[in-house]
């Protein structure tokens, strides 16, 4: 069985709202565009004063610009370096050390005092018993999940290094029988169990736990963590496949199927470099060809080649390309000039346009473009709150929402709020939104779309 996350109420298909004024936004930003990752890093200072500087200091970096360059695969400047695996894990742990109650940092404590970690979750720190006791009613609700986060954060290193790889090869089951993580794990069965056992007994696993300065968890806990990491790595390509099934189907058009991933970042870059998108191809066997183009201002240096030319795809193959910039700029430069293929589906993972006026300003031309050209589009969000806010914005823009709800291929790896550790963890791509065109389409077309295209 698949690991479990907390289930939330599934919403029914929304009706198009009455026409409303577009949201009040500032003029569109420069071509480079706003970055949700930049805004997230800078928000650390508001929640925990001094934390962003601690992160830079531990990495021997002078500015966020240097930090972003390293995250995106650039060459670090002089002074950057990690002496050993133990050093790396210690520096990582140091960036989580602040009192979850009063937000005090280690260097702000009296000389004789130190931050102490919760013995249960090994994830959250307190400056003393007073803060820990006062915070316990809040922390007790998330302590168990934060314990999972602490283990996943360490084992993720095996995914980064390639010491824990993905299942490979065509699916042994018909794609239509794989509906969620339970059926996906059942499909791989004993083959996956063998992979997990191999990872547990590997030299890389032993070296990792020899380096982290904490006891090694029991085998079942480690096995559960590896399964969660698998879902986190494959959530995006499988969610993309769900969107294609629901909004497009296997159209079999000459030249294959084209998907644009908008708002892409170093996350999508990493997935493309690890072969995760091959799982997307396995969802639609027998396809004429799949072409996935990553478009975003936060793409890493090792992103796929920046070539979205309309060359024919090869049957059974998946082609990856990229474009560093905003999607509406990509559209004008590539699509309108015939240098790239019109998309069959556009997908945005955690676009975040609900969270900030600058982000909304950057996204507005893209949202209007997707609506006006009636391009089948799928967005994912972290939480019910984000889902509600995003649906509200799409409603103001009079986009025709086809369906929304819980994603059966959401990541099962809990994500901790960095600067607010006792906030309930969220899960990547927990909810989806499907929309196509505007609300001014006929009721008959809307009803047909809902009947045929629901996930």
How would you sum up this structure, described in words?
The protein is built from 15 helices and 9 strands. A 7-stranded mixed beta sheet has the order 5-4-3-6-7-9-8, with helices on both faces. The chain is globular. With 455 residues, it is α/β, with parallel strands linked by helices. Mean pLDDT is 83; it is low at 7-31 and 443-453. The chain is 42% helix and 11% strand. The protein has 2 domains: 38-156, no CATH class; 235-453, Vaccinia Virus protein VP39 (Rossmann fold). A hairpin with a 7-residue loop joins strand 1 and strand 2. It has helices spanning 36-47, 51-58, 64-71, 85-94, 129-139, 143-161, 181-200, 203-211, 219-247, 266-273, 278-283, 327-335, 357-372, 384-396, 443-453; strands spanning 116-117, 125-126, 257-262, 290-296, 318-324, 345-349, 377-381, 399-406, 431-438. Residues 1-14 have a biased composition (Basic residues). Keywords: Metal-binding, Zinc, Zinc-finger. This is Annexin A7. Residues 99-143 form the MYND-type domain. GO terms for molecular function: zinc ion binding.
């Amino acid at each position: 069985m698949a690991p479990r996350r907390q289930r939330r109420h599934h919403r029914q298909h929304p009706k198009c709202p009455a026409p409303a004024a577009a949201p009040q936004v500032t003029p569109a930003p420069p071509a480079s565009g706003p970055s949700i990752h930049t805004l997230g890093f800078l928000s650390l200072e508001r929640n925990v004063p001094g934390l962003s500087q601690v992160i830079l200091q531990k990495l021997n970096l002078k500015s966020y610009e240097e930090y972003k360059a390293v995250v995106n695969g650039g060459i670090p400047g002089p002074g950057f370096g990690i002496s050993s695996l133990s050093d790396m894990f210690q520096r990582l742990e140091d960036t989580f050390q602040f009192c979850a109650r009063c937000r005090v940092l280690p260097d702000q404590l009296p000389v004789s005092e130190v931050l102490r970690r919760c013995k249960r979750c090994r994830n959250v720190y307190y400056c003393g018993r007073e803060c820990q006791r006062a915070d316990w009613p809040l922390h007790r609700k998330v302590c168990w999940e934060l314990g999972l986060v602490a283990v996943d954060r360490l084992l993720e290193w095996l995914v980064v290094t390639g010491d824990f790889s993905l299942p490979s090869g065509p699916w042994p089951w018909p794609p239509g029988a794989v509906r969620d993580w339970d059926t996906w794990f059942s499909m791989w069965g004993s083959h996956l169990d063998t992979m997990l056992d191999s990872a547990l007994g590997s030299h890389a696993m032993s070296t990792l736990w020899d380096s982290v300065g904490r006891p090694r968890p029991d085998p079942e806990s480690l096995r559960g963590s590896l399964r969660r990491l698998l879902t986190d790595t494959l959530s995006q390509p499988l969610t993309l496949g769900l969107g294609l099934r629901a909004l497009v189907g296997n159209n079999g058009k000459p030249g294959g199927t084209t998907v644009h991933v908008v708002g892409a970042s170093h996350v999508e870059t990493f997935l493309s470099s690890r072969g995760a998108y091959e799982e997307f191809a396995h969802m639609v066997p027998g396809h004429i060809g799949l072409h996935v183009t990553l478009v975003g201002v936060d793409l890493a240096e090792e992103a796929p080649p920046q070539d979205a030319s309309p060359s024919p795809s090869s049957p059974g193959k998946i082609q990856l390309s990229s474009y560093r910039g905003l999607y509406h700029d990509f559209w004008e430069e590539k699509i309108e000039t015939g240098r790239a293929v019109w998309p069959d589906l556009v997908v945005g993972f955690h676009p975040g346009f609900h969270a900030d006026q600058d982000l909304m300003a950057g996204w507005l031309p893209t949202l209007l473009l997707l609506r006006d050209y009636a391009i089948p589009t799928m967005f994912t969000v972290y939480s019910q709150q984000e889902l509600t806010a995003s649906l509200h914005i799409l409603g103001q823009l009079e986009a025709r929402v086809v369906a929304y709800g819980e994603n059966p291929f959401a990541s099962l790896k809990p994500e901790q709020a960095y600067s607010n550790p006792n906030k309930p963890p969220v899960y990547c791509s927990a909810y989806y939104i499907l929309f196509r065109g505007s609300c001014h389409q006929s009721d008959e077309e809307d009803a047909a779309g809902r009947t045929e295209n629901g996930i």
